[in-house]
């Protein structure tokens, strides 16, 4: 199996050189790209398409998503070296920061197919969302990132944020119309940092979990946080899970995050799962 590394130099606080040094010690003349743009990544993948079997994304969920999108419904395989602030997707797919472990997986070449999905055509592999979630990501991108900054931004945003209005276009989902703190589309279980927004989600069942969260009182906050970090969130007065393969709705905000990257998306929204569309290394 031939492999190549695509490195986001802005991940891991722009400190990618130790990774490169370590890689060069273990692999003679490794094939890699230090990507400066989406075009860089696309051109690199195209240029090496015929010689590379496994593309390794070095970065966070946003970087992984960019690389993965180019490999959809092909025989190419995605691997990950996590270097983001949350690393939700890599946590869910058993990739860690041990380069020896990764190279052993590459040598074996074993893979499995997982689902991906789109939000109005925007590709996603992990968790995307709108409402409070989208606003937090927008404000978080103004900071130097990191888990502490994420918590600070989340708390500050929570007290000032007005709920979004959601209106489903299909008759059987209309009972769920209403105001919500946030809506998340979960292909895997977690945002990142082991915060499990959808503990029952599966990345290979042909479905995503639509997670509807109503704005809850301050007294509920510790319970919500405890349950999220211990994989115990479930349907209750404030949280609703809707497993779907495809769904449409209107929402009165354009602020979304797609795999943790802020993006403006116009309503109405069309969510569509692409079953077993991506090969990942195992």
Care to describe what's here?
This protein has helices at residues 17-26, 38-47, 61-69, 88-92, 99-108, 132-140, 147-160, 221-229; strands at 3-7, 32-34, 54-59, 77-82, 111-119, 122-124, 127-131, 164-168, 178-180, 182-186, 208-213, 239-244, 246-251, 255-258, 261-264, 269-281. The model has no long low-confidence stretch (mean pLDDT 93). α6 (132-140) crosses α7 (147-160). The chain has two domains: 3-116, 3-Layer(aba) Sandwich (Rossmann fold), CATH 3.40.50; 122-275, Tumour Suppressor Smad4 (Sandwich). Helices cover 27% and strands 32% of the residues. Strands 1, 2, 3, 4, 5, 6, 8, 9, 13 and 16 form a ten-stranded mixed sheet that branches. It is globular. With 282 residues, the protein is α+β, with helices and mostly antiparallel strands.
Give the key terms.
Tumour Suppressor Smad4, 32% strand, Rossmann fold, 2 domains, 8 helices, 282 residues, alpha+beta, six-stranded antiparallel β-sheet
């Amino acid at each position: 199996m031939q492999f190549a590394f695509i490195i986001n130099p802005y991940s891991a606080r722009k400190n990618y050189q130790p990774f490169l040094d370590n890689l060069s010690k273990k692999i003679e003349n490794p094939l890699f790209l230090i990507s400066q743009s989406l075009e860089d990544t696309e051109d690199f993948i195209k240029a090496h398409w015929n010689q590379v079997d496994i593309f390794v994304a070095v970065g966070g969920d946003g970087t992984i998503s960019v690389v993965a999108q180019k490999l959809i419904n092909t025989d190419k395989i995605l691997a990950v070296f996590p270097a983001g602030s949350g690393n939700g997707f890599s946590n869910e797919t058993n990739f860690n920061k041990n380069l020896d472990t990764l190279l052993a997986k590459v040598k074996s070449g074993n893979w499995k197919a997982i689902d991906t999905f789109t939000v109005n055509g925007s590709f996603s592999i992990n968790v995307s969302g709108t409402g409070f979630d989208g606003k937090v990501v927008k404000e978080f991108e103004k900071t130097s990132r990191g888990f502490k900054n994420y918590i600070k931004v989340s708390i500050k945003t929570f007290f000032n944020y007005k709920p979004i209005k959601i209106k489903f276009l299909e008759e059987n989902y209309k009972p769920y119309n209403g105001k919500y703190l946030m809506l998340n589309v979960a292909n895997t279980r977690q945002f990142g940092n082991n915060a499990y927004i959808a503990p029952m989600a599966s990345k290979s069942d042909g479905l995503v979990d639509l997670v509807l969260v109503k704005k809850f009182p301050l007294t509920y906050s510790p319970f919500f946080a405890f349950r999220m970090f211990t994989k115990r969130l479930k349907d209750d007065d404030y949280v609703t899970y809707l497993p779907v393969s495809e769904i449409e709705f209107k929402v009165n905000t354009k602020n979304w995050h797609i795999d943790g990257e802020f993006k403006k998306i116009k309503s109405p929204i069309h969510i569509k799962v692409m079953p077993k569309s991506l090969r990942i290394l195992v």
